[in-house]
Amino acid sequence: MAERPRFDPYELLGALERRRVAYILIGGFARVIQGTEELTLGIDIVPSMRDENVRRLAQALDDLGAERADGNGLDVSVPSLGEETVLALRTDRGELKVVPKPVGTRGYDDLRWHATGEHIGKGLRPRVASVDDLARMVAALGREQDIPKLLQLRHIAEFELSRGIEL
Amino acid sequence: MTAGRLLREARLRAGLSQGELGKRVGRPRTQIARWEQDAVDPGFGTLRELLRACGFDLHSELVPYEPPQDARLEKNVLLAPERRVGRMLRAVGRRTPTRG
Fold it and tell me: What residues of chain B lie within 8 A of the CB of A143, using their CB?
């Protein structure tokens, strides 16, 4: 069995930043940044689907040596991404999923309004989907195994509200 | 979970704009916005009507009240995002992550 690459979110996000890719961080890593307690070995992003941004994304993925997890050839373009529900990629720094339009949302232009830039160290400040939007995505998947994640997100939302912080 | 958050989640999951939902229930867009911002409480009956207009229903039953007890989660929330990530990455080295 091939050894699993060491998950290094800083390298993954750094590659996106260096190419100035516009994206919103979602999924498990985003939830951890927002305060949930769970483990993940990859990052999930919702990119802006504008032509120039998708070109930058293709360059960043090339920098990372990304390959499709299903073994098929990788084509990163607006038409090909538009056909993907989830583009699952393997890189030397962990898993990277590109999700053009997460279930329960209308994609980047929907999520960016409530996303916030979060300092995660090493000079990186990715835009992270809001707690409410992360909960919306988890709820829309309707998976029983996600209920603990949903409860954590709703608890965080209530806790932050009680502290007078609008998410 | 507040009424406003629940309403916003339902509307967005239905793919409706505030104006479109307003038309469905015969209310102005600005009223929908006020409800979603929790500036005004829509009341139980109106909330149910709004959720149904989004294609959802409010399943209600009485359950024992349990105040939030997840002190560990609240402690985690008080950490800076950088420390939350650091904790998770250290834990990844010790445990098997779950998917999704």
Answer: 100
